[in-house]
């Protein structure tokens, strides 16, 4: 086993401006990357695939939070190369259903929202915010006969039937059409979207102009059978082996063994039990923030270790307990230990901007987990609400909050459930506003990948391993961080 001196040598390969890392721990906001000479002619030449066995082609994982990862998030993010982790609170039979549903989705076409001609505009409006494509396909006998958007439903009674407001002149696309040709056909007809149909004219999907473009820019995260990937989480209590076996049988591509304090005996025992059952997929576990925690979890059987205690937007651990660690330094140290042992880490929490993802990867993470940021998108499981100012939002909550504990302990006695709810480390309700310009998780992925590709080109890195090797990191003051923010109005 490598000693502490080996670990220090590896950490020192992450170059700090001036050559000497600071003596104190750092957050993402404390640091920046310095541009280096680059031979990269185009940002599209950068390979963003992770090499940790997760199968992601962009280093983004949607966190296993109830307000973040459901079937819509899993389908959408995997289609663009990322991975969603279903929360541990979901019953195993429901997880199996969701996994099967996601794996039946098309790699290019989105899942349509469908209603019949006699359904109402009120029903359509309730469904439109479930998908970023913003359309309901009106079908009869499985064939599209009309398209309804939010604009079609304005200024009419909510009981108006869709046949009275739908656009009946429907452009359809054949299921086997290439994305570039689909874009051209939509562009020529001045259509934003179109239903996709099979040879018999039956609806199979929906494709937007932007979706056709994205299909040429992203590679889906697929399993060996060419289906979309999806992961699922379990806790450290109960029949851990049985749950892991059930997830494997359901077709999950990766298991996350998850608890707030991952460096504990229960976690080590759970990993040992799972490893003895030989699951046919990678196992991630966490959370920890020290090299010793990484070492213990890898020795117990983890392929990937989740790093982060307290940086999440919904987490109150640091304010409640004083326990945690600034995330950039935690990722830096933990990734060094994992690399020494031939394993990997995911940076979990503290991501507010695309820059944070680039810095986490420069520090050595193979993937970055995102939670609350993605809660405020069309694809997250929650319903859309409107505040008094008309802004759209969804509710988010921490997975150690009283709200999450209440869901997790539904089978406990009222007395035991009430006792557990007295102790919480998380926010039970928060508003995650949808960005009017980027309301979809795909919109956010566009911003993330654009920023990350540029970061790699600035560093002269053609892939994520080279980003870690070539990045030069500096430490800045709060004023330095503020200086880098754009100003939407004059000063």
List its salient traits.
globular, 8-stranded parallel beta barrel, 2 domains, alpha/beta, disordered N terminus, TIM Barrel, CBS-domain, 491 residues, 3-stranded mixed sheet
Structural class: alpha/beta
Give the full name of the CATH homologous superfamily of the largest domain. Aldolase class I
Biggest sheet layout: 8 strands, parallel, barrel
* Approximate strand percentage: 15-25%
Commentary on this structure:
The protein has 491 residues and is α/β, with parallel strands linked by helices. The chain folds into two domains: 4-106 and 221-483, Alpha-Beta Barrel (TIM Barrel); 113-217, CBS-domain, CATH 3.10.580. It is built from 19 helices and 20 strands. The strands form five sheets. An eight-stranded parallel beta barrel has the order 3-4-11-12-13-14-15-16, surrounded by six helices. Strands 1-20-2 form a three-stranded mixed sheet. Strands 5-6-7 form a three-stranded mixed sheet. α6 (179-188) links the parallel β8 (173-174) and β9 (193-197). The model is unreliable at 1-5 (pLDDT under 50).
How are the SSEs ordered, and which strands pair?
Elements: H1 4-11, E1 15-16, E2 31-34, E3 60-62, H2 71-79, E4 83-86, H3 92-103, E5 113-115, H4 121-128, E6 135-140, E7 143-149, H5 150-153, E8 173-174, H6 179-188, E9 193-197, E10 203-208, H7 209-217, E11 231-234, H8 240-250, E12 254-258, H9 265-276, E13 283-288, H10 291-300, E14 304-307, H11 317-321, H12 327-340, E15 344-348, H13 354-362, E16 367-370, H14 372-375, E17 385-386, E18 392-396, H15 402-408, H16 414-421, E19 430-433, H17 441-459, H18 464-470, E20 472-475, H19 478-483
Parallel strand pairs: 1-20, 3-4, 3-16, 4-11, 5-6, 8-9, 11-12, 12-13, 13-14, 14-15, 15-16
Antiparallel strand pairs: 2-20, 6-7, 9-10, 17-18, 18-19
């Amino acid at each position: 086993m490598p000693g502490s001196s080996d670990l220090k040598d590896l950490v020192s390969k992450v170059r700090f401006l001036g050559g000497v890392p600071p003596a104190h721990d750092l957050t993402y906001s404390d640091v920046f990357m310095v541009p280096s000479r680059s031979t990269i002619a185009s940002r599209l030449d950068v390979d963003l695939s992770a090499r940790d066995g997760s199968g992601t082609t962009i280093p983004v994982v949607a966190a296993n939070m109830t307000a973040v990862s459901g079937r819509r998030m899993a389908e959408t993010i995997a289609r663009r190369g990322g991975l969603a982790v279903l929360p541990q609170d979901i019953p195993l039979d429901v997880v199996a259903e969701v996994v099967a549903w996601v794996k039946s989705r098309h790699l290019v076409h989105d899942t349509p929202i469908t209603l019949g001609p006699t359904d109402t505009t009120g029903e359509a409006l309730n469904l439109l915010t479930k998908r970023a494509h913003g359309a309901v396909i009106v079908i009869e006998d499985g064939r599209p006969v009309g398209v309804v958007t939010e604009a079609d439903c304005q200024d009419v009674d909510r009981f108006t039937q869709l046949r009275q407001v739908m656009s009946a002149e429907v452009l359809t696309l054949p299921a086997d059409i290439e994305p570039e040709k689909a874009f051209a056909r939509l562009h020529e007809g001045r259509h934003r979207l179109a239903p996709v149909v099979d040879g018999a004219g039956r609806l199979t999907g929906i494709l937007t102009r932007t979706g056709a473009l994205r299909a040429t820019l992203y590679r889906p995260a697929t399993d060996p059978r060419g289906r979309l990937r999806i992961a699922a989480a379990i806790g450290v209590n109960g029949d851990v082996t049985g749950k892991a076996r059930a997830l494997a049988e359901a077709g999950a591509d990766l298991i996350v063994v998850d608890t707030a304090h991952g460096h504990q005996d229960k976690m080590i025992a759970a990993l040992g039990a799972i490893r003895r059952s030989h699951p046919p997929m990678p196992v991630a576990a966490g959370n920890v923030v020290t090299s010793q925690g990484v070492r213990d979890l890898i020795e117990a059987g983890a392929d990937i270790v989740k790093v982060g205690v307290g940086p999440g937007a919904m987490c109150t651990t640091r304010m409640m307990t004083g326990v945690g660690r600034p995330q950039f330094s935690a990722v830096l140290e933990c990734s060094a230990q994992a690399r020494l042992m031939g394993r990997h880490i995911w940076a979990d929490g503290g991501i507010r901007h695309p820059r944070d993802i680039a810095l986490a990867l420069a520090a050595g993470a193979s993937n970055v987990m995102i939670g609350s940021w993605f809660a405020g998108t069309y694809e997250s499981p929650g319903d859309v609400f409107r505040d008094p100012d008309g802004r759209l939002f969804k509710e988010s909550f921490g997975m150690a909050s009283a709200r999450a504990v209440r869901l997790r302990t539904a089978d406990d006695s009222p007395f035991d459930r009430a006792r557990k709810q007295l102790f919480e480390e998380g926010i039970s309700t928060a508003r995650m506003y949808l960005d009017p310009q980027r309301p979809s998780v795909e919109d956010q992925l566009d911003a993330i990948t654009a920023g990350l590709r540029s970061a790699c080109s600035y560093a002269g890195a053609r892939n994520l391993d080279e980003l870690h090797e070539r990045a030069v990191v500096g430490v800045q003051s709060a004023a330095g961080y503020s200086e880098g923010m754009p100003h939407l109005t004059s000063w």
